[in-house]
Amino acid sequence: MKLSPIALEPHQVLYEQVAERLQTLIMEGTLKAGDRLPSVRKLRQQLSISTSTVLEAYRLLEDRGLITARPQSGYYVKPTALDLLPEPSPTVPPSQAHEIDITLAFQLMITLQDSSMVQLGAALPAMEHLPLSQLNRLMGKALRDNPTLMHVYGNPVGCEELRDELAKRMINASCSIPPDQLVVTNGAVEAIYLCLQAVTQPGDTVAVESPTYFTMLEALKNLHLKVLTLPTHPREGISLPHLETALQQEDIKAVLLVSNFSNPVGCCMQDDRKKQLIELLNQYEVPLIEDDVYGELYFGRARPKAIKAFDTENRVLYCSSLSKTLSPGLRLGWCAGGRYHAAVTKMKAVVNLGTAIAPQMTAAAFLKNGGFDRHLRQLRRSYQQQMGQMQQAIADYFPAETRVTRPTGGHVLWVEMPKGFSAIALYEAAIAQQISIAPGIIFSASGRCYQNCFRLNTAIPWSATLNMAMQTLGYLAKKQLAEQLLSSEQPASFDRSP
Length: 498
Ligand SMILES: Cc1ncc(COP(=O)(O)O)c(C=O)c1O
Fold this sequence. Notes:
The chain has 16 helices and 17 strands. With 498 residues, it is of the alpha/beta class. Helix 11 (271-284) links the parallel strand 9 (252-258) and strand 10. Helix 8 (187-199) crosses helix 12. The longest helix has 26 residues, at 372-397. The radius of gyration is 23 Å and the shape is globular. Pyridoxal-5'-phosphate (PLP) binds next to helix 8.
């Protein structure tokens, strides 16, 4: 294995950068459990760094529990939590288009917002991860500098200052979109809602990945749309052969999915599959609504491309937001609607005339001069570490039958228990202990699938309280499985049919 020389990052010491390069190779599976790491001499030569830097990097990886030193032999990759836990299999949702039945979601969302709980249920960054004082300062300055501007109706497509910055950020996702082709929205959810309105009529069918982020299901339901749920692989995303069959057999008016580190399974489509998806959609002339709110939260070396980057016929309506990276409360998202830009703009003007100006000016200032990239680097490091800690806790405390996803970005884990397990019962038992989880059923369009699954948020710094919460959840899950076994005397199995 040969590593290319390291380009020094000004804000991080060299040995940490070396450790992170190696950690990424371990997390991505390039370096597997039992593999020998390059010798100190070899790595020193390859990267043109000192022996002590290599040793410091290896020591850091040992501290993180990722590698181990064998006397006279070298450094080896240790088995991680992921080697102990299988990952869930691809999903098998209902194969017919149907209306959405998600009566439970809203009821459960109320506890997902209760801050007195250990919040493993909501996919939200802990406040410690957000640059709050800097944002507050910038908002104060924006208000002082523009005492009237903040109180007028703005341009429905949003402030130019912010659209300029967002257009620059989209280059990182390999998309070259002029600022005048962007619409600023109240978060990604509004962007998705406007896009759905721009390309569908009530009664139409939209193809979605399954499990599906429940707010998307709410939006689809509200717009009287039917869904066709597609089998989804926990790492690779929606099944393209199933999508092709659906496009042949059904009158699909749009496809809606999360392209990078989806919610709830954390899958990230590879570039070749993104390209194939575009070819398929071009062939059937179907628009794609792409939600990329997690794209910046990658653990690997580079940001994954947006599907929009492969969009040769301008059929992708790209949606994203600053909720996962900067502040969910600013309620700032955006949309690059491609050939549907005019329709999205019109919808935006009809629905709420425009997005509030003060948050836009605040975010524009932060993106321009606030060290957004530095903030993101720190965020990615924390999220990668926290996800590893949560996976380790699952391996340590949860039943042996547990399966868990292995996302390479974002901040959610999808946990699957054997069939017959009730995630709702676990949810209720956990709520009594002041812990919230997101039961799988709220991600099911039919309201019947994923009853044995649940989602955990990992955007929370590791602490004794979190450790205790994971221990409690593991205990409650084991208790339920034991009771189930006693009452049925049937061995648990992994049938994933709804
Ligand atoms: C996939 C996905 N899209 C959109 C959102 C919401 O985004 P926003 O707060 O920007 O409306 C979330 C929040 O959890 C999400 O997970």
